[in-house]
C-alpha cells in the first residue's frame, strides 16, 4: 500500500502589489491524505494547476514534501529504506526521456543489466512486456523513429522492467490514438489483476469512470471529493463522472469566491479524448 499523510508542497510565486512585484508563498498541495491499496486503480482528477502532478511526484519519491509523509507498506511492514521505496515504484510522466538511438529491445536490455538481471531473465521479461503493451511490431525500431503512442508504450516498458509493486502514471493516455490508449488501459487493468497498485491522473473522465476503483478530485491543492465513481454519482445526483466533476467543482469554486460557476466555466483540460475517439 502507498499512503499520503497530510502531504504539503510549498512554492513561491511572483505577485503584483501596486507597482511592486513581490514573492509570495503558496501551497501547491495542501495537507492531502490518501491511500491506494494492492489491486486498485486510483484516479487523480482535477483541472490544470490543481496540484495533480506535484502530488504524484511526491508520491513517486521524485520531489521532497514541505510537510507530511509518504508511507509504503508491504503487508503490515512499513518500508523505511529509501532505496527500497524507490524500487517499489514505477513512475511515468510526459517528460520521461528515453535514449533515442536505442531500439526498445536494446533499451530494455540496458535497463535489465542495470537492475542486475541475467540474459535469460532480460529476454523473458522483454518478451512479456512486449506482449502486455502490444509492441512486437516495433520492438526493434529506434526510439527516435517511434510515433507518440509507441514512445509512450516504450516509456511504460521502462517502468515494467523492474517489476515494481506500485505504478504512478501522470496522464498516460494524453494525446494518444485509440490503439495506443487501449494498450495502456489494458496494461493498467492487467497490473491490477496481478495485485499491483496503480495511481494515475487523467483529464479523460469517461475513461476514469469505467477504469478506476476510486477517485480523488483535487482543487487548489486540496481534496474536495473522493470515493468510487458510483458513490460520487450518487452524492451529486448525476449520471456521469463528468457531470459529477462539474457539480463538485462548481460548488467548490462558489465556496471560494462566493459565486458558483457553471459547468462551462470550469476548465477541465483538453476537450478531446484519445485521437480518433469520441470526446470525453
In a nutshell, what does this entry contain?
Helices cover 36% and strands 27% of the residues. The protein is of the alpha/beta class.
Polypeptide structure, described:
This protein has 280 residues and is an alpha/beta fold. 36% of the residues lie in helices and 27% in strands. It contains nine helices and ten strands. The strands form two sheets. The chain has a six-stranded mixed sheet with strand order 6-7-8-3-9-10, with helices on both faces. A four-stranded antiparallel sheet has the order 2-1-4-5. Helix 8 crosses helix 9 (241-257). The longest helix has 17 residues, at 241-257. The radius of gyration is 20 Å and the shape is globular. The two termini are 30 Å apart. The model is unreliable at 257-280 (pLDDT under 50).
Instruction: Report the oligomer.
Output: single chain
Shape descriptor reads globular
Mean pLDDT: 87
Q: What letter string, H or E per element, gives the SSE order?
A: EEEHEEHEHHHEHEHEEHH
Question: Rg from C-alpha positions?
Answer: 20 Å
In angstroms, what separates the terminal alpha carbons? Answer: 30 Å
Query: Strand order within the widest sheet?
Result: 6-7-8-3-9-10
Helix percent reads: 25-40%
What's the main sheet like?
Answer: 6 strands, mixed
Beta-strand proportion: 25-35%
Amino acid at each position: 500500500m502507498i499512503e499520503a499523510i497530510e502531504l504539503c508542497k510549498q512554492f513561491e510565486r511572483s505577485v503584483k502589489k501596486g507597482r511592486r512585484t513581490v514573492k509570495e508563498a503558496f501551497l501547491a498541495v495542501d495537507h492531502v491524505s490518501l491511500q491506494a491499496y494492492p489491486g486498485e486503480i486510483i484516479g487523480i482528477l482535477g483541472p490544470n494547476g490543481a496540484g495533480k502532478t506535484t502530488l504524484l511526484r511526491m508520491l513517486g519519491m521524485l520531489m521532497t514534501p514541505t510537510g507530511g509523509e509518504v508511507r509504503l507498506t508491504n503487508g503490515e511492514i512499513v518500508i523505511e529504506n529509501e532505496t527500497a521505496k524507490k524500487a517499489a515504484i514505477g513512475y511515468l510522466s510526459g517528460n520521461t526521456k528515453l535514449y533515442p538511438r536505442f531500439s526498445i529491445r536494446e533499451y530494455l536490455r540496458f535497463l535489465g543489466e542495470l537492475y542486475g538481471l541475467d540474459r535469460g531473465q532480460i529476454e523473458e521479461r522483454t518478451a512479456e512486456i512486449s506482449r502486455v503493451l502490444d509492441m512486437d511490431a516495433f520492438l526493434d525500431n529506434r526510439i527516435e523513429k517511434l510515433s507518440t503512442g509507441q514512445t509512450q508504450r516504450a516509456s511504460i516498458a521502462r517502468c515494467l522492467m523492474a517489476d515494481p509493486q506500485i505504478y504512478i502514471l501522470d496522464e498516460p493516455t494524453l494525446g494518444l490514438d485509440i490503439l495506443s490508449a487501449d494498450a495502456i488501459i489494458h496494461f493498467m487493468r492487467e497490473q491490477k489483476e496481478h495485485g499491483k497498485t496503480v495511481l494515475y491522473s487523467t483529464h479523460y473522465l469517461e475513461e476514469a469512470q469505467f477504469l478506476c476503483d476510486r477517485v480523488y478530485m483535487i482543487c487548489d491543492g486540496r481534496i474536495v471529493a473522493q470515493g468510487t465513481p458510483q458513490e460520487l454519482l450518487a452524492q451529486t445526483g448525476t449520471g456521469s463522472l463528468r457531470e459529477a466533476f462539474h457539480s463538485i467543482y462548481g460548488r467548490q469554486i462558489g465556496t471560494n469566491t462566493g459565486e458558483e460557476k457553471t459547468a462551462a466555466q470550469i476548465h477541465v483540460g483538453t476537450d478531446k479524448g484519445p485521437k480518433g475517439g469520441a470526446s470525453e
